[in-house]
Amino acid sequence: MGRAVKRIVYDERKIADKVKEMGAAISAAYPDGELLVLGLLKGSFIFLSDLVRQISRPLQVDFLVAASYGDNTYSSGNVRLLYDPETKLEGKHILLVEDIVDTGRTLSRLMELLSERRPRSLEICALLHKHIAKDLKHPVKFTGFDAPNEFLVGYGLDHAENFRHIPYIASLQ
Ligand code: PRP
User: Fold this and answer.
1) Would you say 114 and 62 are in contact if contact means Cβ atoms under 8 Å apart?
2) How many CA atoms lie within 13 A of 150 on its CB side?
3) In testing the pocket of ligand 1, which one of 79, 102, 149 has its CB within 8 Å of the most ligand atoms?
4) What is the DSSP letter of 45?
5) I need a labelling partner for 156 at 20 to 30 A (CA). Which of 50, 117, 128, 168 fits?
6) Planar angle of CA 95, 119, 128, nearest 5 degrees
7) Contact indicator for 108, 136 with CB cutoff of 8 Å
């Protein structure tokens, strides 16, 4: 048997209110220019779909699938895209959407890679931020919740690919 849910950390109401707030902040932050919202799969798929429906300005959506190599041999260029966005990045405002920032390694690697595509701006939006990342060079511009340092699942987040579908965010036993 897999692990069981210990407690609900953010319920559906709380998440919906926060996503609405974030959508309004993002709408206000980009008064002009083309906006491309880039979801990092798989974890961001539910957050991204709710978030874009709360953004009241034109935008495009695309996705990234990244593979990282062993964490022990960390280097900032050490990321490979398994799925590269088909949409052009150059000259656009790019908003990279993450479900959770944990060690920050995924983002550090991706931001370097994406900045080479010469976007007009490049920012991060994360629903959850543990604030334990030591090597995150780029600050997270839009943060939903300052998350506890527990193993969190639901609303897209998994444990061994399970729990992604549950509509709230919970910690595991
Ligand atoms: C998880 C999560 C973030 C990343 C955060 O992805 O979705 O992308 O880890 O961790 P970090 O800050 O320590 O890099 P995971 O690699 O588990 O893939 P998934 O999105 O498919 O669940």
Assistant:
1) no
2) 17
3) 102
4) H
5) 117
6) 20
7) yes
Per-residue pLDDT tens digits for 23-51: 999 999 999 999 999 999 999 999 999 99
Contact 93, 33 (CB under 8 A): yes
Range list of H helices, 43-165: 45-52, 105-115
Catalytic annotation, pick one of 50, 102, 146, 158: 102
Alpha-carbon distance of 125 to 63, in angstroms, equals 14
Tokens of 115: 């900045």
Instruction: Go through the chain and tell me how many residues it has.
Output: 173
Residue ranges lining ligand 1, Cβ < 6 Å: 40, 42-43, 98-106, 158
Kindly report whether the global pTM for this prediction surpasses the value 0.85: yes
DSSP 116: T
